[in-house]
């Protein structure tokens, strides 16, 4: 795959045949899908929504440092996720999903001893961390 800079890409814009594009019918699109190996009759699979790292952390009432320590990951990783520099890979997304759905079980399994703010059952006392 060739790599281009933005300026090179802007100089070499693809030529689009507007007439051909406008003349493309739904039947043509279906034929192209079948030609490419897609089944146009197949219903799309359900999308699994993975919670964002910041959303999970804030909902649990943890600081970035506390969240990183609880998950046994570097603080820089949490910061990079939250600032959009990187995205969680598949195992990290799975972990975030588990933490979002079952935080007490996840933190217990990780052995962190973290009890998120909104899950602390002892009213009036600060959460244990």
TrEMBL record:
User: Record keywords: Transcription regulation included?
Assistant: yes
Entry-linked CDD domains: HTH_XRE
- Alphabetic keyword roster: DNA-binding, Transcription, Transcription regulation
Q: Does the keyword 4Fe-4S apply?
A: no
The record's section on Pfam families has: HTH_3
Per its UniProt entry, which superkingdom is the organism in?
A: Bacteria
GO terms (molecular function) for this protein are: DNA binding
Limits of the HTH cro/C1-type domain: 54-90
Gene3D superfamilies cross-referenced by the UniProt entry: lambda repressor-like DNA-binding domains
What is the name of this protein?
HTH cro/C1-type domain-containing protein
**Lineage of the native species?**
Bacteria, Pseudomonadati, Pseudomonadota, Alphaproteobacteria, Hyphomicrobiales
């Amino acid at each position: 795959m060739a790599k281009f800079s933005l300026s090179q890409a802007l100089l070499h814009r693809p030529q689009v045949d507007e007439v051909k594009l406008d003349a493309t019918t739904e039947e043509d699109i279906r034929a192209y899908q079948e030609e490419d190996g897609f089944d146009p009759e197949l219903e799309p699979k359900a999308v699994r929504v993975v919670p964002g790292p910041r959303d999970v952390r804030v909902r649990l009432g943890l600081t970035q440092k506390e969240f990183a320590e609880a998950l046994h990951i570097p603080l820089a990783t949490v910061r990079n996720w939250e600032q959009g520099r990187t995205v969680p890979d598949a195992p990290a997304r799975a972990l975030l999903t588990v933490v979002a759905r079952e935080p007490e079980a996840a933190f217990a399994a990780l052995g962190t001893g973290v009890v998120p703010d909104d899950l602390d059952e002892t009213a009036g006392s600060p959460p244990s961390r």
